[in-house]
Write a structure and sequence with these properties.
globular, six-stranded antiparallel beta barrel, Thrombin, subunit H, alpha+beta, PilZ domain-containing protein, PilZ_domain
Length: 138
């Protein structure tokens, strides 16, 4: 099976809202078509979920649909979520920001010798550069 989109690794925290409840997970990778999340429980295929990434500016929020889920062990699974057509522009902006943040994390870690987490790098990158990041609505 060939991939339609390049996947970009990321460990940025992500929230899944389902039936009024919010659960925080870690993103494994992201592409224009969707994202892969590390989780403890699988959800049924075609389950509609709301994805939120509060670390991004502005906060990323979009509706997605579960496409697949695979258990790696009893309490460790990978969950694949795709975006609908309406969310594509938001997904592009999210992927761009995630790539910038991860690049910044690697550069900052090399410069300082400190292993920055994705959360630390995101907070620092947003404080320094988010105001200059092009707005998708313009």
């Amino acid at each position: 099976m060939s991939r339609h989109y390049i996947r970009h690794p990321s460990e940025i925290p992500i929230q899944i809202l389902l039936a009024g409840e919010s659960h925080t997970h870690r993103m494994k990778n992201v592409s224009l078509g969707g994202l892969c999340i590390e989780t403890v429980h699988c959800l049924p295929d075609r389950t509609e979920v709301i994805i939120r990434i509060p670390l991004l500016m502005p906060e990323f929020s979009a509706t997605g649909q579960v496409r697949w889920c695979h258990y790696r062990s009893l309490d460790d699974a990978l969950l694949g979520i795709c975006f609908g057509d309406r969310e594509t522009a938001f997904a592009v902006r999210m992927v761009e920001q995630v790539c910038h943040i991860e690049s910044y994390r690697r550069q900052a870690s090399r410069r300082s010798g400190i292993n920055y987490s994705s959360e630390e790098a995101a907070a620092e990158w947003i404080a320094r550069y988010a105001q200059h990041f092009p707005d998708a609505s313009q």
